[in-house]
Design brief:
Blueprint: H1 3-24, E1 40-46, H2 52-64, E2 71-77, H3 82-95, E3 99-102, H4 111-119, E4 124-128, E5 141-144, H5 147-161, E6 166-172, H6 178-193, E7 197-204, H7 209-221, E8 228-231, H8 234-246, E9 256-261, H9 264-271, E10 277-280, H10 286-297, E11 305-307, E12 312-313, H11 320-324
Parallel strand pairs: 1-2, 1-3, 3-4, 4-5, 5-11, 6-7, 6-8, 8-9, 9-10
Antiparallel strand pairs: 10-12
Helix pairs in contact: 2-10, 3-4, 5-6, 7-8
The chain binds beta-D-fucofuranose.
Beta-D-fucofuranose binds next to helix 2 and strand 9.
Length: 328
């Protein structure tokens, strides 16, 4: 080996030793090729995939909390089971996520697990439905809808458009969820104020099309007379509409149909005359959650409670163009 070659060999050895030393020193790993290390990690415990509303909500979160926007979203679908949400939150805590977003199934039962998140120093943002906890410092803030007002909006439409006796079928959502509680309270207030309104059936269809259809089929088989269906979401209304059609009834004409969510398909059913009135519930919380996280990262304090703006639709003024412009 000549001098230059010996010198080269020594340099290579030194470089190799250096690389080995760094590798074993337990230092900060080199940033991953895709920059994953610098992403803000958000664990999102989602209720499930029970409705069009829910799917639009999940998509909105995925689009906003995307790697392009600087986030890694860990999505957990709880299949409408609170126990699964509690497990998901514990997993997020173990993984050391930066933020937890919870869309809660029901209002009660969160104190213990949110206490654990607080002890771990992880901010919790609640979206969509509300929670009821003894200590409100267990969550950072909440973003969602005023479900009681939604119920009142439906009742106001009934008062304005339907006179005289009314036999009402009430399809409820998940019992104990804010969406069910508020929309039911609205109808109950209407029933109390209108002795000429009669509740002929009330039951929970868990916000799903299949259960909405099942409930209506059972009711139709019993030959109970009714004039109106108050369905606490669109998917249960779709199921009810299928059951009515199969029984030879014209939904929207023989039976008045009121629903909640105002998803694209439901609005098209207003255009075809099968749904009479639909109260909007806005699922596009992704950008709102993103804005809250950005505020928190800047050290700011977001408002504790944010109610989103919502409207309602009947056939008047509704068109394909309006529906196409809505994004869900
Ligand atoms: O109305 C329903 C969904 O909590 C607002 O949950 C949400 C409700 C929505 O399954 O379709």
């Amino acid at each position: 080996m000549n001098r230059a070659a010996r010198w080269m060999a020594l340099c290579c050895l030194l470089a190799l030793a250096g690389a080995l030393l760094c590798g074993c020193a337990g230092g900060r790993p080199a940033p991953a090729q895709d920059g994953a290390e610098s992403l803000v990690v958000v664990g999102f415990s989602q209720v499930g995939a029970e409705s069009d509303w829910r799917n639009a909500n999940t998509l909105s979160m995925q689009q906003a909390l995307s790697p392009e926007n600087g986030y890694r979203l860990i999505l957990d679908d709880a299949q409408q089971k609170q126990e699964r949400q509690i497990t998901a939150i514990r997993n997020f805590i173990n993984q050391g996520v930066d933020y937890i977003v919870l869309a809660p199934t029901t209002e009660k039962g969160w104190d213990t697990v949110l206490g654990e998140a607080k002890a771990a120093g992880i901010p919790v943002i609640i979206v969509d439905r509300m929670i009821e906890v003894a200590d409100t410092s267990l969550f950072t803030c909440w973003i969602g809808s005023d479900f009681r007002r939604e119920g009142d909006t439906a009742v106001a439409w009934m008062e304005e458009h339907l006179q005289g006796p009314l036999r009402i079928v009430h399809l409820q959502g998940n019992i104990g969820s804010s969406a069910q509680i508020g929309r039911t309270e609205g109808l109950d207030a209407g029933l109390a104020a209108h002795p000429e309104w009669e509740l002929v059936f009330r039951g929970s269809g868990d916000f799903t099309q299949a259960k909405g259809q099942e409930l209506m089929e059972a009711l139709l088989a019993r030959d109970t007379g009714f004039d109106l269906i108050y369905s606490e979401n669109d998917n249960m209304a779709y199921g009810a509409i299928d059951a009515l059609r199969a029984a030879g009834l014209a939904p929207g004409r023989d039976v008045t149909i009121l629903s909640f969510d105002a998803s694209g398909h439901a609005l098209r059913l207003i255009l075809s005359g099968e749904i009479n009135f639909d109260v909007e519930c806005n699922p596009l919380h992704g950008p709102r959650v993103q804005a809250v996280i950005e505020q928190l990262r800047r050290g700011e304090t977001p408002p504790k409670f944010t109610y989103v703006e919502e409207t309602a639709f009947d056939a008047e003024g509704l068109s394909e163009a309006v529906i196409d412009g809505r994004g869900y």
